[in-house]
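Thanks for the sequence, V.! I ran ABC transporter permease subunit right away. Repeating your input here for the record:
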Amino acid sequence: MADTTVDKAPEAVSSAALRRQMLKEFWFYFSENRGAVIGLFVFLILVVVALLAPVIAPHSPFEQYRDAVLIPPIWTEGGRAGYLLGTDPVGRDILSRLIYGAQYSLFIGVFVTTLSLTGGIFVGLIAGYYRGWVDTVIMRLMDIILAFPSLLLALVLVAILGPSLTNGMIAIALTLQPHFVRLTRAAVMAEKTRDYVTAARLAGAGPLRLMFRTILPNCTAPLIVQATLSFSNAILDAAALGFLGMGAQPPAPEWGTMLAEAREFILRAWWVVTFPGLAILVTVLAINLMGDGLRDALDPKLKRS
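Predicted structure:
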């Protein structure tokens, strides 16, 4: 009994050391991409801002100040110290709405990516493992979905389901799912013929165990990269749906909806449109830069020597 305990201790230590080594290697390749590091820090700032929105925001995102309609930013003529980035056409503080809008963006990204990733992995595993007519049917369906522009397909689905943030997120998830299906299928087909899979099958492992416990853990690298890129696409598509009036509905402080509400004031109140647009631009760019760094760090073919 004592010998067994002694034997397990070195194994636990070596396992922890291996994990630390893998993390060091990952950070080494990730940090070589300066843009990815900058994107990571910007994304972490966005997360902190979203979590601390009730503390950071100077005003409620819904409160209207009728004596402060279309106040310009503080550094321009006519600006007020109480409204750093100005106010919108109904007197709401733009800075506060941008801060709370970060919560919407993160929630949209997490929800859409989780839904599309989960569904895509499940369908892709079935297609790649069983092949035959099942694979043919699934992949032709994915090809049909990919034949349509993603935003156009999302608009059609939202028009059927009804305009709302929830329906918009579901529609976006369905348009992003084929990318995960194709990636998972290709990875499963490559891994299925490996010796460790054959050994597990000869040891008596069933199809479900082979798919989810044996093959799937070795297919995660490209899926993580695709999930990061899908996260930014989800935010961008949700903003587009909100701008078209098919996503989040007013008075929600979602960045695309803020742009839609300010369309008629573009020429005489530039700040009402500029700051939500910059928020979308910076967020999507930061996440895409992170995705590039993850690709460099996780794909052995792209690791720099």
